Amino acid sequence: MKNKSLIIIVLQSALIICLLWLIIYLGKDEIFRKDYDSSQRVDDEFELDGFVSIEKKMITIPSSVIKNSGIEIQPIAESKKRSLYSSYGYVMNLKELIISKTKFSNMNFKFNQLNKQLEEEEVHYKILKSLNEDNKNIADSVVHEKEIEINNLRNDLRILKNNKRNLFSVVKHEWGKSLTELIINSKESPLKGIFNSEARLLKITITKNQIKNRPPQELIVFSLNQPEKKYKANFISKAPIEDKDIQGRSYFYLLSSNDLMVDSKINSYTEISEDGQVKKFHIPKSAIVWNNGKPWIYEQPNKNSFLRQPVFKMEEDKNGWIVQFENTPPRAIVTNGAQLILSEEYKHLITNENED
């Protein structure tokens, strides 16, 4: 019985050894092949789908992956679009300014009247004084009364002059220097139309980031009720008092038309030429990828290589985005498949972390 068990064990061992030898013999070409070209192995791996190489933020993807993934690249186009900056305001009610103008006119009329009277009384006083000194033909009391009358006139003129100065200060504080000068002599001013309803005074508030050295000299304005009717308004001066309802700096503009109603709210914009300014570029919406809360694009500096680059000051356009670049703008960008490249980039980074 023992001999039979021993024979069975020996036979099983021999069978296992034969099977192992057979497996090794049949697979030796794959395991021990010595003439395998290592460079060919790298090329084969490079053509595997999903292989991504990243060096110094440069992402390299094989041609087959680019073709099969639908990644599209096109030259970047410089934007010729003129930037539009919107601003808001309203048509000024000139009631207070007109009241101030009327007060000034009355004061000025009274001042001229008193001044003329003073000149006449001073001439009369000289005559009375001369007669008083010549044989006392005129009593001293008459001369003294004339002196009092003249002093009262001079005092009235000083008060009136001071009132005019105070009026100027109030108007200048609320309306600025240009409109203060307007109430002095509106006939010679190009702004005179605002007092006879031939023109309109506009107060427009422009956000600070839209103003570089000075506000635009001309604005396109329109009423919110009739946006299809547009008018040109010309810059007058800075408004001394800012509009509390709109953030930014307020300015006065002249509209040489009375079509807009007083107190009506208006919208305005200005067209800024790109000549001599920072270059802007038009890119399709599909070219933008968002990462870490920032917009990016992928440029193609070399064949099959991509580099992520941030964009700045994006302005939405009906066909995409108008953007700026901090450094030299790219020659060609990814317009389709940018999100795929971003995914491949992060998939590779995750793989490296696991390998480490």
CATH architecture of the largest domain: Beta Barrel
Kindly report how far apart the N and C termini lie. 59 Å
> Could you estimate the helical fraction of the residues in percent?
40-55%
Task: Give me the Rg, rounded.
Answer: 45 Å
Number of domains: 3
Strands, count: 17
Using the alpha-carbon principal axes, give the shape: rod-shaped
Strand order of the largest sheet: 5-6-9-8-7-10
Instruction: Please report which band the strand proportion falls in: under 5%, 5-15%, 15-25%, 25-35%, 35-45% or over 45%.
Output: 25-35%
**Uncertain regions spanning at least 5 consecutive residues:** 29-56
CATH class (first level) name of the largest domain: Mainly Beta
What is the overall number of helices?
A: 7
Mean pLDDT over the full residue set = 78
Secondary structure topology:
Blueprint lengths: L1 H30 L6 H9 L6 E3 L2 E3 L2 H7 L2 E4 L1 E2 L4 E9 L3 H39 L6 H36 L1 H8 L15 E7 L11 E6 L7 E8 L10 E7 L9 E8 L8 E3 L5 E3 L2 E9 L2 E6 L1 E6 L2 E5 L7 E5 L1 H18 L1
Antiparallel strand pairs: 1-2, 2-14, 3-17, 4-11, 5-6, 5-10, 6-9, 7-8, 7-10, 8-9, 11-16, 12-13, 13-14, 15-16
Helix pairs in contact: 4-5, 5-6
Task: Briefly summarize what is shown.
The protein has 356 residues and is α+β, with helices and mostly antiparallel strands. The protein contains 7 helices and 17 strands. 41% of the residues lie in helices and 26% in strands.
Describe this structure in words.
The chain is of the alpha+beta class. The protein folds into 3 domains: 53-82 and 278-355, conserved putative lor/sdh protein from methanococcus maripaludis s2 fold (Beta Barrel); 86-92 and 196-272, Efflux pump adaptor protein, beta barrel domain (Elongation Factor Tu (Ef-tu), domain 3, Beta Barrel); 95-184. It is built from 7 helices and 17 strands. Strand 1 (53-55) and strand 2 form a beta hairpin. Helix 4 runs antiparallel to helix 5 and helix 5 packs across helix 6. It is rod-shaped. The model is unreliable at 29-56 (pLDDT under 50).
